[in-house]
Amino acid sequence: MSNLIPAVKWLKKYDLKDLKGDLSAGIIVAIMLVPQGMAYAMLAGLPPVIGLYSVTLPLMVYALFGSSRQLAVGPVALVSMMIGTTVVNFAETGSAEYINIVLLLSLLIGIINLLMGLFGLGFLVNFLSHAVISGFTSAAALIIGFSQLKHILGVNLAGGHSVFHLIIEAISKIGETNIPTLIIGLASIVILFSLKKIKSPIPAPLVVVIGGILVVRLLNLEAVGVKIVGDIPGGFPSFSMPEFNLRNINALLPVALTIAFIGFMESIAVAKSLAAKDKYKIDSSQELRALGLANIVGSFFSAYPVTGGFGRSAVNYQSGAKTPLASIITAILMIIILLYFTPLFYFLPRAVLGSIVMVAVFGLIDIKEAKHLFEVKKSDGWILVVTFISTLLLGVESGILFGFIYSLSVFIKRSAYPHIAELGYLEEEGVFRNVERYLEAKTYSQVAIIRIDASLYFANMNFLEDKLCEIVGDRVNLKSIILDFSGINDIDAVSIGSLEELMTECKENRVEFYFAGIKGPVRDVLKGAGWYENYGDKIKYLSIEDILVDMKLLND
Amino acid sequence: MSNLIPAVKWLKKYDLKDLKGDLSAGIIVAIMLVPQGMAYAMLAGLPPVIGLYSVTLPLMVYALFGSSRQLAVGPVALVSMMIGTTVVNFAETGSAEYINIVLLLSLLIGIINLLMGLFGLGFLVNFLSHAVISGFTSAAALIIGFSQLKHILGVNLAGGHSVFHLIIEAISKIGETNIPTLIIGLASIVILFSLKKIKSPIPAPLVVVIGGILVVRLLNLEAVGVKIVGDIPGGFPSFSMPEFNLRNINALLPVALTIAFIGFMESIAVAKSLAAKDKYKIDSSQELRALGLANIVGSFFSAYPVTGGFGRSAVNYQSGAKTPLASIITAILMIIILLYFTPLFYFLPRAVLGSIVMVAVFGLIDIKEAKHLFEVKKSDGWILVVTFISTLLLGVESGILFGFIYSLSVFIKRSAYPHIAELGYLEEEGVFRNVERYLEAKTYSQVAIIRIDASLYFANMNFLEDKLCEIVGDRVNLKSIILDFSGINDIDAVSIGSLEELMTECKENRVEFYFAGIKGPVRDVLKGAGWYENYGDKIKYLSIEDILVDMKLLND
After folding, report:
1. Within a domain: A436
2. pTM across the whole model
3. What is the count of structural domains for chain B?
4. CB-based contact A116:A124 (threshold 8 Å)
5. Which residues form the STAS domain (chains A, B) (predicted)?
6. What confidence score (pLDDT) does residue B408 get?
């Protein structure tokens, strides 16, 4: 039973003294989620109520199946924006068709997550390197931030894939600004920042939401063109199956895959950091299954894709959540709000929701990380910058793809042209080191000791051959080449073939090869290729010293 | 001048005694190219004459700009088939629109190759591993072979993306077989194989082409339903620009990229193997520029994509080609044939062309390679098999993509869960080795010596942390962990951060970290991260011995 529904485990041994923390966290997150859910739904091009629907059943499902005790799932800014910018290619924003496609996307994302979880494919998120993610997130935050300009200015902006389109359009329409809307928007941005800075115990979004509703209602600002949320259909969402056909699914699949990956990466990162604080383990496959089920169930009840969010989970943790019961409490409160309190939000100005999104994503822009990467490793820094710029210019989907391809190219280029060092003997320390870094290292005219700092595979053998041929060509007295294999962690069949050819060719030139420090896993592969029989005397040495002793160049 | 047109170099110092070889190779390749060009064009869904156009100007352009002396460019089976199976999605086979799209594809491929050459991106072909290529080629050969069934049987087969569709359709239509066509087809297959086996000096394709023409003409087989090549418009192709719009280009780009990659991989592999035989160098960027220009120029003169071919280049080399003049001679002969001799091929049966393709691709199926890979390295063998099966089931484009993603997954999985060994001291040899492989290795209760066989990056740090925490948890007396960094060829900023955290945590448990044998490139990165200041005493050691001596566990 506890294998089928992991929640059984923590429910069985639930400690009543955790209830206080769970209850207070559940309530605070619910209060936070009302404006956030509506704001993110708007960002995704959906009616605000869909955002509220998304924090009911999916939260409960995750609480039952997840492995994190404090992760607060729900709509997140990044995923919402990706939905907003991609689904618009399939249907008109706000239409019934649009909502249907988003729900279908939710179903697909759920299925992808579930399958990845069942097949233990969580490691696949490593496709995207940290630098790509960091550059992408900062750019996406800028795009999201600027996309809210229309709500703050109170004008219609068609927007586009890139930030620059948005800015140009906003400037050209600056004359149409609705002044009351702008004042509300700017005021709530100031309030959100200030309350965040003084670490107010009252949730800032709640303050601006209540303030916004009161101001619009009391001053009757709707009449002067301030856009409000309006009617939110009350009640619990009814069961419905997203409509689909094969063409739809084919077209949505790349989007669904991208969102499923990005969403899961954010979620697992948050879950792990919270788990580390409370010293327990996160099971990434179980997380995938839980998120998958949450989205599948959600898609049948008008919920759009959810995943674990940074800010929300941090609030959940700090408010004392000890078990997933906190999320269940949140979900119950959301259902109560949906059943009885939606009319309260009628006068909520959209500018307030826009400002909540803006301030939320502002924290995602990470300039420090870029600086840090450039200090530690330039190539990682450039990957971040390239991904950042390409995301700004090409939009989120193409941007992250471009960043990924660029990072892969850097990686392939590096592994195709690996670092190779000629070693000399440091007599005092008794070790072999790069002669370019240790000028005192002793070398031998008839022996070249070469260390290769990369696993060998088909793609870098050409480079290695060239380098070794150069060495053989340059040195007249050369009799032997010793390859230090201590840095070679892996080898493939093609490179073994190339090595054999190289050895035969060099033998014709009277240069012999020796191999030192071959590791177990590489030894196993060489055994399969018959090297124990054919080159036993060349690969038997455990260290470079042994070979030099055998050559009588070094004393035992 | 010789930088702009590399041919100037070899033309300047052309040795007249090379002329005999170049002339004979040029003639033999031309004879071979007439049927091959027509057959491959048919495979690509094009009128046979396009295949002849493709071996005129593009050959001359390649001869002027390429770096290989013996590479014979022209249409190849693999690329032709990829064109045939993909362009059919954009226009009806054989229509003017179809031809236009193929020429546009040729232009795109040329531009991609040229750009890759100008930016020195030849290393990008390493995206595809050897095992993927091998599995893909074998599967594609099967698909190509079976796709010729319609010509051999003389029936109309719509075909599909997968081999199984083809076979099922062929069986269902077996009753419609045209017996004379079948006899011609089978006879030419037998002749092609036999002449190949006895290493006949007369080119086998020429024999079956002449035989086929004579038989059809003398027995008037056209009247009994044997399909023939028919009218080939004579004369040199006129200049024309492929028509295009942005939507076309967008849709064709993935196809063009795939073909450009695959085509270049085949070409560079052949060029390199011939260059190795004659001991000269191939410049991969120059090759890309030459192929790019050849295809760009070709696309303006009704030529479809060309690249260096295996079989043809081997024939060129064996027939004595010494310089690219051989290819220029071939091209001139082809132009003469186009001007005066196309009516000769009127009665050529299509079944003969089909049999030439079938026999040509049969040689590409490589079962030995699969066996070899399984013997040497199982995971590479599985990559080959997965790519082979996915190509058969999903078709060439999706098949190679699937194979690529699978090979990437294997790679990522392996680097996310690297091999980690605990080391012990072999007193006799004075080296440290895996205690599981060397049971006699001496260990110390208060020190764990751990060797990590992978470069460290964000994706494998979790695994490493888990492993190290396990070790710290298991051993009560543990005071120090020595990490052997000799196998760590690279490190990224995220993993440095994780290591720092780990060291702080373990310090609380009174376990200290030491690092041995850090390589230069890794040292540089650690320096950037401030480790020289913060952990100078932990990373100063060149070898594990030094640390143990300092700990007084080993004598100096």
Report:
1. yes
2. 0.78
3. 2
4. yes
5. 437-551
6. 84
